[in-house]
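Incident log, structure service

09:12 report received: a user says their structure output differs between two submissions of the same chain.
09:20 pulled the input from the user's history:
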Amino acid sequence: SDLTKLILLDSLLQEKKKMRLVSLLCILVVGISQCLAEKRILALLENLAVKETHSIFFSMLNRHGFSVTYKVADDSTLQIKKYGEFVYDHIVVFAPTVEEFGGSLNADMITEFIDNGGNILITGNSNTGEVLREIASECGFEVDEEGTNVIDHLNFDAKDTGHHTLVVADPKDFIKSELITGGVKSPLLYRGTGILADPGNPLVLEVLTGSSTSYSANPEQPIKEYPHAVGKNTVLIAGLQARNNARVIFSGSLEFFSDEFFNAEVAKGNGKAVAAGNAEFAEALTLWCFKERGVLRVDSINHHLVGETSPPDFYTIRENVEFEINVVEKKDGSWVPFKGQDVQVEFVRIDPFVRATMKNVNGRVSAQFKIPDVYGVYQFKVNYLRLGLTRIQTSTQVSVRPLRHDQYERFISSAYPYYASAFSMMGGVFLFAIVFLYYKEDEGKKKAE
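09:34 re-ran on a clean worker, output below:
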């Protein structure tokens, strides 16, 4: 019987080990699938030759862990949505002249994809197709007319054929955000059309603009009308970060991402040739677009009375409260504590009653303040938006009640004069009563009068 018990005990232990192993494998599979689910890219190409001419770019995507599916843009089997869910997280469109996408894909579907948080990188050229123009219009920028190129007679590469369309872009014309540009210091090569950004749209980003001497026009025809894009208004690469943090990049040049430009050297006029910064810039820009850079996440939110740790059911006016959030930033594929020191919190009833800048200690961002002397339903609101970073927008509702009947002060210092007048009146009445009741005139004096 003892042997049987030992055998049963051993079998139970073996079963437990197997169950633990299965659980660990399930957790590992789920974790890997979640990681891969955020890195699915659909690459829509003009033709399959683009995969070879832009191999360095696609190798960079593979190096950063992205899973890329290659399709020709007019493939009749194209679909990005299946069973009500999008099957890709990001889209790359390297098909500038496509007039219509194949399959069920169209401009409205791309717009829906962006509205659902998808990110997209699009390139055009001097003959940008109608469907890409429609997408650009939906995102707040306009591609210049067909046949136009960005021309700069003072900033062109020595390899230019004579039309001055092989433009050299200077780093001083980058957007002022290293999260987007990667801090590139080298000049860039650009050959493509110009883009006009909507100045009234606060979500549009002018990632790379032309110099003050650039303009967009047809180099084969004489200029009879004032060009649409002139000087700094000539946008070479435009971006958009939507309110749902979806990101869009639209480049007027497909060649900008090509192996030829990645490996090229730049020489303005008779100047010294230096390596072009296209590869470094394109990598930083693509990682930003696909949310590998400049992404903030709120891990936790907490509020409580100063000196306590858990939130109460309600607050009372004039109490000291502490609000804190834990914010992390995505860097090099991992989440690290956010270092920003300019996050603010508002205590709002209809309008903000309190606005305080929070202190950041290793990603724990907190502030202390006194609740206003007005009761009602309030919200702790954080709305943080900085160039190159995703928006943080949180709202936490709490109730603020007035003081209970036994919480008021028994004696108010400002009422001391009234206390004194009341007691002096009582004292006066008391003295008057004593005099009135007990004072008696002499009888002899009264008769004499």
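09:41 both user submissions now match this output. Likely a transient worker issue. Closing.
09:42 reviewer note: The longest helix spans residues 2-37. The chain has a mean pLDDT of 88.
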